[in-house]
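Researcher: Next sequence.
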Amino acid sequence: MTMPITLEPAPRRRLPPWFKVPMPGGDNYRELEGLLRDSSLHTVCEEARCPNIGECWERRSATFMILGDICTRRCHYCAVTTGRPLGLDLQEPARLARVVQRLALRYCVITSVNRDDLADGGAFIFAECIRQIRRRLDGCEVEVLIPDFEGSEEALRTVMDAAPDVLNHNIETVERVFHSVRPRGDYRQSLELLARAKEIAPGAVTKSGMMVGLGEEWDEIVQTMRDLREVECDLLTIGQYLRPSPRHHTLERFYTPQEFDELRVEGERLGFRHVASGPLVRSSYHADEQSAAARR
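Model: Next structure:
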């Protein structure tokens, strides 16, 4: 008689001890959570399941995600919902500006899903958010973390004309791994976007970020840093990739805090104005401090 075969699920990889963070739930966290719900706004903190959400929200810092919460792309590292977006909310910039004013933020980070269904990729809404915030809250710095706009110089120029304090576009990973995790993106196109931002506004501060743990080699990380410096990228973030679910790209390995320190030193040696490198670092983690360091 043939015995039945029982397939056991693969054991879940345990997080190293340096990933332990307090559970979110302080007074500021709950206040910000309620304010966002009442304003029908989204944050990448929630959509991307960021491990720093408790710390950041408690210090009244959040990265707002505009243009809805449905992305037209399916990147293999990202937890944001993929599908067909539902129209365009032209009132979103005004609502966002009111929340930023109510929180009396001195620094605001705005990102978005990819909106390849829109002719300008959502560039107009980015620009309008910057302008609305400046009208309501004089002195608030605005950082935008933008998609690649499918290489459109016109869309990029629309955003740059609104003069963000920091223009951020993530390279995400090394060139060899790039296509396997971002099948609808292009490594060289992302570098070109950062180079073009400097051409449009030579005094602009540009920023990029990458994940490690996707199967890259050490020398490939360093080469990516060199590529970013060749397009005069000023600020860099490096963080550990954490697999959102079994259907996402495999987590190949954890980097140690000491390795992240080595990458920070290497980035500083290459000439970045500031490098934030650590297991829990994400694109907008303590972005205000990074921007201030760039201006010192």
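Model: The radius of gyration is 19 Å. The longest helix spans residues 123-136.
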